[in-house]
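Subject: for your reference before the review

Hello V.,

The reviewers asked for a structural picture of the protein, and I figured it would be easier to keep everything in one thread rather than splitting it across files. Below is the amino acid sequence we used in the manuscript, unchanged from the supplementary table.
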Amino acid sequence: MLVPEINLTPQLQQRIATALPGARVAVLHSALSASERLDHWLAAARGDAQLVVGTRLAVFAPLPRLGLIVVDEEHDASFKQQDGVRYHARDVAIYRARLRAVPIILGSATPALESYAAARRGRYRRLLLPRRASARATMPAVSLVPNRSPDTHEGMGPRLRAAIAERISRGEQTLLFINRRGFAPSLLCAGCGWKAQCPRCAARLVVHRTEATLRCHHCGHSEPVPRSCPECGNQDLLPLGFGTQRLERALSELHPASRILRVDRDSTQRKGAFATMRTAIAAGDVDILVGTQMLAKGHDFPRLTLVGVLGADNALYSADFRATERLFALLEQVAGRAGRGVLPGEVIVQTDFPDHPLYAALVDHDYDRFAQALLSERELLGLPPFAHLALLTAEAASRALVDVFLGHAVEQGRSLVSSHALRCEVYPPVAATIARRAGLERGQVLVQSTTRSALHDFLPRWRAELERRGPRRVRWNLDVDPLAFT
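And here is what came back from the structure prediction:
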């Protein structure tokens, strides 16, 4: 049984223990100590474990009596290993099930478009679960409210504030979801317009108020918050935007007697921190949760009846063609945290675009309508799942090295396409979305084909040419079926 995140394994272990008492379970993920991981790996390899539960690495566990594979939240990008040996655990699981002739279940309320298209073609068997796991639970009502009301307080509109107060008075729990950690995404000088930039990346530094630091969420660079603008000396420095820390502070001011808990990567760094938090939430010792996508998946809190979503519109401005697909999946997942018990749930989404098809589908919990519209767009544009992609990325100390390497790579690739009559298109090189990261300049080249076989014929030849002629001062890699273009 594969899950996308380590934090989901304790809850799943508990449910297995309840449903299958006496079952021998092995757990595999990177948070285990070396000795724990070895013990569980050996239990799987010897066949002592009847169930193996883990994150993407567990897909490689030796299982002599394998009879079933389950991939939970199969759409989740966490199943893709993005560096080192690149693989997608879902795809490896499908191939492994085929080799062993055993069934595989891909579970998701919002399947990846590739999986959805395969089910529509009849390649996969589609099974619908129209009701929630608890017979008494119903899907939460979703409301879209203005994002920029005149009386908004620290990003929270009047409708959301009133709903939070109502839950507090009834002794119910609220989750406020904002997918940005820290206090504010950037720091601005009101005098000259200076903005705090990372010295090693083409990205802004994020304000972390608790530690009084500016941090880069790409390379880890950290520095103290300046007392004045380094350009003009002005002391009027403004934090722009909202993060989990800022929202936590605002809620503490509005509801000083309430128990507020922030759950993000910063607050859960210490080992066992998230498990402690989860126990407190389940016990009803928390009134308001402020969290990122760490809380969006799989967690079951029966007294959580309100979910408020802030900052969702940011994803609509992304240049990544998968951005809307990911946003719908994320919002449907976080909406699903509300009303999982006998108490009805409500979801309030603050947005500037209430007429967007994504939000219309979210209100109706209609994934089919949304997915079919996306598939029509992808087919028209020749994008996955109607095409197959490979991404060559390169990084080096200077932009010139990257440009020269990628320029030669495009020439070699197009020459191979022409000489072998391969149905592939090699696009010109471009800078990466984050053009500079951790002191290295970055660029990429996209290869596209309408058939998987053509890409399979092309890539080994191209890779051989790159390895033969590639300069040593450029670090590069090939990613087949890339999920991100960062």
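For the response letter, the relevant points are probably these. The chain has four domains: 6-107, 141-182+242-378, 185-240, 388-480. The radius of gyration is 24 Å.

Happy to draft the paragraph if you're swamped.

O.
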